[in-house]
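We treat protein structure as text, and this decision shapes the records that our systems exchange. Below, we set out a record of this kind in full and without editing:

***
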Amino acid sequence: GYHWANMVYADGKIVTSSQDGVSAVIEASPTAFKKLATNTLPDKLFGSPAVSGGRIYFRGYGYLWAIGTK
């Protein structure tokens, strides 16, 4: 999908998001690329992900998504 949001670094991982609702979690490594996960939300994502309090937030067209264990 089309990416225009900034990537976010948290807990040794990089998180990206695309406008079509797909986010990817990538291991932050200077020597190799390793995609850890790909997730899809049923919304269009606009803006950069934000991390706070053990959660990651995505601003969608219709919702604010909070994902985490807390």
Q: What stands out?
A: Residues 48 and 60 are 10 Å apart (CA to CA). The chain has no helices and seven strands. The chain has a mean pLDDT of 90.
